[in-house]
Amino acid sequence: MQIFTLVCGLLISLSAYVSATALTYKLAPNEKACFYTWVEHPGAKVAFYFAVQSGGSFDVDYQVTGPNGKVILEGQRERQGDYVFTANDGREYSFCFNNDMSTVTDKLVDFEIAVENEERAQIPSKQGTSPEQTSILEESIFKLSAQLSTITRNQKYFRTRENRNFSTVRSTEQRIFNFSIIESLMMVTMAALQVFIVRFFFQGARKGESSRVTPFGLQSADHMEITGYV
User: pTM of the full predicted structure?
Assistant: First the structure.
């Protein structure tokens, strides 16, 4: 029962220790979207993760700016990124995505912003427990938290790959369908053109047989047969 109380107290402390925001945003062509987070204490760790789930070549421009207007992180045509930096000033930070390179395609961006304090959360003390037991339990909880973070990152990675592969499959399927329609139209057009050309040749040959040139001028075949009998 005491261990359960200690674990609950540590988890409550960890919930106040980390604040995170995870969003999915659809970025329109030539659009620039910015998101903001507030850092309470200077020296806090800010984790920034993003991944383009679908759209175009799965790339986007990003920029992270501090309170004084200084650019902290910046990249162009990046598919995904996972960064951690120290916030030297305890004020507002901006995270911007830019889709200027695309004029038609939307981009679906999945991102997460987490603010973590450098000070470790202290586990509440309980009567009857030694400091060694508390320290061992605390270390186990933090290791478990790190392993859960690793699992979460792996899930995000596989989710991103799944979404990109699904988007590629849909794009390929649409291209195959469009190519099939164009190929069918071309076959119908070529068949109609061949019929027209064959009919044109037969009509020209029939006209050549029905009209012959004689010393007296151009006469028809029927007229020549009648003249021969006379």
Answer: 0.59
